[in-house]
Every structure is written in structure tokens, then in C-alpha cells.
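Would you be willing to look carefully at the protein I have copied below?

:::
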Amino acid sequence: MAQPFVPAALPATQPSFGDLFRVFLHIGLLSFGGPAAQIALMHRVLVDDRKWLTDDDFLRALSFCMLLPGPEAMQLATYAGWKLRGTAGGLIAGLLFVLPGAVVILILAILYALHGDAPVAQALLLGVKAAVTAIVLQAMIRLGGRALRGRTDLLLAILAFAALFFFNVPFPLLIAGAALYGWWRGRSATMVPAADGPLPALSGTIRTVVLWGAIWLVPLIALQLVGHDHLAALGLYFSTLAVVTFGGAYAVLGWMTQTVVNDFGWITAGQMMDALGLAETTPGPLILVTQFVGFLAAFRQGGLGLGLAGAAVALWMTFVPCFLWIFAGAPWLDHLTRRPGLNGALAAISAAVVGVIASISVWFALHVLFGRVDAVRFRWLSLPVPDLSSLNTAAAGLTVAAGLMVFGLRWPVPLVLALCALGSWGISVV
């Protein structure tokens, strides 16, 4: 029978709330470059410099966060805050990881909506999108190096690419299929020895799930009841997205494009690419792109006021569930990370996500490099075919330059984005 959960002893260097606030504000302001760079930054600050967490604490928490939907770096920050100062610490750490980038994204979204058609803005955005083409490819290669451990994983990645790119298979179905296969493949693996200590009390976990589930979903129900149909539709969509966002923001961009562009018509393909490009320029998790999309989708319906409400709905529905996953699951960390079935499911999802990111890489590159991309359909097959005469030579040159900076010179992402944007502006002036 489950015993009451007794939290692990806090470190001897348990920080004050003031120290916790200052450190995670510092991390939130400097968290550029995607999850790999963000996780490395947290490891340096929390493990090497402050010694608030041990290497073992950090790595087991990272493994746990990778089992969860949502941005793993933000959830890792939330777990670290919870480990150090309980629920209040988790809230401080998680919010400070997200809010600096959210403020910047909101400002960029407003400027984009009001002035995005200006020639200068268009020139700068072309450079940003060229840089992002190389950055997305780098993300795919990095993830592939970790996730593809054999022919089976490679086959999963290829099948995921084909399913999304050619057949428009819904992303949640793709992830569910990969998870079920991974669980089936992993369930026969040798189980890691059980964790020391009693199981957490199930009643406490249920209370946490009910509380945070209500915090997350009651606003959505309220929007339905008061008749804000567009905001309610946005909330329902982004709450669904939050449940299936395995593998990071790049993994769900293909599905976001299918739905918000092709199915719902909330924004255009060009705006979707601009949203990703601008999200790359900000600190915090890349999934903040949902806030940008929520703002634009609502702005097109009702102007600035509705746009701000749409941004708030997208932000709430995307990130509140992260606190639910962490606060409900953190006490179970030692037990969950030792289950072979769960680890097998994670490995299969990670392999499939490589194919998903490859799909968005190709889609993004085609739309950056060519002014016109037609969808040729044959029964269930949909094939994007670029008009070769619409090749944008400036975009092609900037993409090659970005590739050299990212892969050859290994320059940091913010610098690559800035140089490509300035280079595109310079070309437009000439």
C-alpha cells in the first residue's frame, strides 16, 4: 500500500526565495538558443556554480521531463524550483523561465501586426527566416544523433516524415502510434532496480491533478459559457496542443501549420513562418510561438484588444499544464524513470520526432526559398512542388551563409539571426 510521500532532503545550500528569484530571472533572460543551450545554462548555474542540485538530481529530472508533453527546459526549471523550495519555488522558477520571452514575443507580435508589411520589416524577416532554415536543420541533426540508435529508430523517423509530409497524418495520432509501439517494444526490457523509499500517497497526487486541472481548464469553460467562440476555439486548440507537444516546438510546427493555416485559416503560411522566425529571436522556450499565433489569429478577427486576449489564452493553455505535469509527477520521479515501458515509449517518440522535424525543415525551406509552392494532390497523397522560376536568390544566399555560420563557424543563434537580418536589409537597400 502507498505510504505518505516524504520529500527528499533539501540541499544544505537551500536558497532563499530572493536568491531563487534572482537566479531564475537571470536564466530566463539568457535562455536563448533552444532547449539544448537552455539545459546547458541551467546545468552550469544550478549544478556547477550554485551547487543547488547534484548531477544525479539534474539528469534524472531531465529524463523525467523528456517523458512529458511540453517544453522540457521550462519543465526542468519548474522541477528544480520545486525540488529547492516546494510548489512556490516551482512557480517562481517556471514563470521566470517563460515570462521574459513572453513579454518580448508580445511586443514583437504587436509590431508585426501593425507594421509587418513595411518594406524594412519584410527585409529583416527574410533574413531571420533564412537563418531559421539552418537552425531547424541543426536541431534535427542534433536530435537525430541522440534519438536514432539503430535501424528501427531510423525507420520510425522515415515513416513519421512520410506520414506528416505526404499524407498529412494528424500529429497526435502519429505520436500515439509511436508511443504504443515503443511501449510494446520496451516492456520486455530488463526493469531498472526499484527506487528507494515508499511510493508517494496517491491521494495527494489526485488533489494536485484536480487543483491544477481546474486552474488550467476552468478559463476555457468560462469562455465557452460567455460565448467568446473564437477565443474558446483558440483555447481548445492550444490546450489540445499542450497534451501532445512531445519533442519540443519543432515537432508540432508541422501540425500547427496543417491546422491553423490549412484547416482553420486563422493565419497564412507566411505569417506562420514569420512567427517561428521571430520566436527564435527571443529568450525562453520556442513553444512561445503559440502566443504569437494566438495573437495574430485573434487580431485578424477583432483588432488589438482581441489580439491581446488571444495571446493570453494561448499562453495560459500552453504553459499552465506544465505546472500540472511537474507538481503531480515530481514526487513519482524515481519510480517513473525506472519503468522500461515508459522509457521505450519515450525512445520511439524521440525517433518519430526526428522525422517530424525533418518534415517541417523541408516545408520551411521550400517556402523560404521559393515564392510559390503548389500542393499537388493524388488521392491521399499531397506533394508540395515549388515553382522553380520563383526562386528567391537573396534568400538562397542568406540560407547558405546561415548554414556556414551555424555548422561551420558554430556561432551562437542570436548572432546568426542578427547578421542574417542585417544582411537581408542590406541587400534590399542595394
The beta strands are 373-378, 381-386.
